[in-house]
Amino acid sequence: MFSQSFQLKILIVLLTALPYVASASAAERNSWAEYGGSPDSAQYSGLAQVNRENVSRLHVIWRYSTGDSGKYLFNPLIAHGVMYVLAKHNSIVALDAKTGRELWLHETHPTSQLITNRGINYWESADGRERRLLFSCNNVLQAIDAKTGKRIVSFGKDGGVDLREGLGRDPESLTLVQSSTPGKIFENLLILGSATNEEYHSGPGDVRAYDVRSGRLVWSFHTIPHPGEYGYDTWPPDAWKRAGGANAWSELSLDTARGIVYVPTASPKYNFYGANRKGANLFGDCLLALDARTGKRLWHFQMVHHDIWDYDNATAPKLLTVMHDGKKLDIVAQVNKEGFVWVFERETGKPLWPIEERSVPQSDMPGEQTWAMQPFPLQPPPFARQAFTEKDLNPYISDPRERDEWLEKIRRARNQGMFTPPGTQDTVEMPGNNGGANFGGAAVDPHSGRLFVVSKDLPAMLRLQLAEKRLPLHAAVPEERGRSLYESNCELCHGSDRNGRPPAVPSLVSIHQRLSGEKLRSIIQQGQGQMPGFAHLKPNEIDDLLTYLAHPDPATAAGDRGESAVPEQGPDGTLHYKSGFGFMFTSSGLPAISPPWTTLTAYDLNRGTIEWQVPLGEVPELAARGIRNTGSHFPKVGPVVTAGGLIFAGTRDRKFRALDTRSGKVLWETTLTAGLEGMPAVYELDGREYIAVCAAAQATTYTHAVPGHPASSEPIRGEYVVFGLD
């Protein structure tokens, strides 16, 4: 018989050898029953059957066509041997996860642009008898039976909850509330963020929790505080009644053991001018720690004070355990568009490394009051470039005249670092409001304290101009009214000739021949891609706008329409300034900055250091010329890390890759029928590991269709593809 002291030593050794899992059980790490793989959004799988030694033997097990030519970036869910995907005109489809055989299909809304298209939520009761899928479509939260696909009519009112209600605004004035990203399930609650419009007329970004059975609202957290709430004095009085944004459109993370939900928030609106919202604007651009049961604020940290750059926290907070100063600490790490990694103790919000407030350039715009200081984390080092000067110009601009034009643009622009305030002259913004890390863009190994970040470098050139309304002084025909609306709302980006600025801004010439009227109405109201929604436009005004786009000549030939131009202003009397579409693309459709345009960075958060950084993906046209290591262009990539020492990631060059977590070296890759965005799913059935991916994005490395680019006119041949070993 062993002595008690010996038994104690054995126990200590065993406990030390056990892997630490902060917020997910071992079973959850081996399944993929929710977006991001687990409650803490780790994008990590504990499966190791596929590993560095055998990944080269991966092959296709089954395929399932999306059944249309639409773009999908859905993260599949797998529960009880069933895979749930989005396909066939935004329908939710259940598949046999072993074979890909279709089990049932639930139609949502075939023409809708507004659906949680990145993923949905799965919930089951403690006894497993009730199983539900929850998703939002057209601003309505809905629940369906996961076994049959039938709508649950007892949920909400006639099977739905109108998400526009309960925000302190007229629901009819809000055309966009729901996000394209699902929420998080905690016990019997579904916690949701929102995706408000990016215009002056946006709704507030309340974080809300609903009962998964009844649809009843359980709690709300006001990201634009109401009277008496913490942070109310960081806005003008009663800003909650008219200001918008400060919303959580991206991913949430849960520490289920502690009952804490971590919420990354975005910028207040309007994105680039804030005279109507003087103050620091809590809780915009924050990492919020909320009690998951009540919505009570536990702590917060604001990454950008009074944001006028659209520097959202766009990626899920990551929960890890690290060794820091000789102690084991549970931490939360947040990456964002600025290219920073922010690291805090999970319960207190105390930073692991110093964060320094530094003076930044100030705005000279009328009415604007920018914040004098902004926070800079001193460690870990940033993962993205944070400046763009002449020396960084893309060396592959072949036309000398175009190269000289870009050099002149950069020299004449205001360019004082990433907090250069937008103004009426060209202003360089880097990494850019669509640069840095975006949704799905980070994954962790929660056992080792390692963080992996996908980021893109995409500089923007911003310029503000006074927004005006053009008012006809006589009874105009629809084409003339439509032109007035176009000039007030669309001309800044798409130009007076409607030709846009491809590839960043598509042409609207003959747009009615390419898209249906219903689709165009949906895009105008709700936005699409980088285009914001125009919630303030009434249905009859959209009709006039579409009439003008279809028949511009009568309006063009109308001569003097007897109009007066009136500056646009808000209810508080502040003038509205707006910025045109400012991404810096060359005529080739590639960024004006030199490559790499996309990188994958590995951090050791035990030490706060970068282990390695590699380009991720390629531009096929450049690779064909022997130009490699450029990184893909404009990705929305979600990496997934596995216990087999692998990182799985897809890119828009049609490639799906497995990389070594130790070095970033590509160990395996395959070419699929379409581009890839979003994140894979890793799961196990009957002792076999599977890796599923959605390949249904535009098969071009450019952000939008580029005239003359062969992939721009190709229909998307989307499919879900599942890989495994023999």
Tell the overall outline: globular
**Annotated CATH homologous superfamily of the largest domain:** Quinoprotein alcohol dehydrogenase-like superfamily
Radius of gyration, CA atoms, in whole angstroms: 25 Å
Total of DSSP H or I helical runs spanning 4+ residues: 10
Average pLDDT confidence is 88
Helix content: 10-25%
Number of domains: 2
Question: How would you characterize the largest beta sheet?
Answer: 5 strands, mixed
Strand order of the largest sheet: 1-36-37-38-39
Overall strand count? 42
What are the segments in which pLDDT stays under 50 over at least 5 consecutive residues?
1-27, 701-712
Structural class: mainly beta
Beta percentage is 25-35%
Report the CATH topology name of the largest domain: Methanol Dehydrogenase, Chain A
CATH class of the largest domain: Mainly Beta
Spatial separation of the terminal alpha carbons: 47 Å
CATH architectural name of the largest domain: 8 Propeller
Care to describe what's here?
The protein has 726 residues and is mainly beta. It folds into two domains: 26-463 and 585-724, Methanol Dehydrogenase, Chain A; 468-567, Cytochrome c-like domain (Cytochrome Bc1 Complex, Chain D, domain 2, Orthogonal Bundle). Helices cover 11% and strands 29% of the residues. The protein is built from ten helices and 42 strands. The strands form 13 sheets. Strands 1-36-37-38-39 form a five-stranded mixed sheet, with no helix packed on it. Strands 2-42-41-40 form a four-stranded antiparallel sheet, with no helix packed on it. The protein has a four-stranded antiparallel sheet with strand order 3-4-5-6, with no helix packed on it. Strand 40 (681-685) and strand 41 form a beta hairpin. Helix 4 packs across helix 8 (539-550) and helix 7 (517-526) crosses helix 8. It is globular and about 70 Å long. The two termini are 47 Å apart. Residues 1-27 and 701-712 have low confidence and may be disordered.
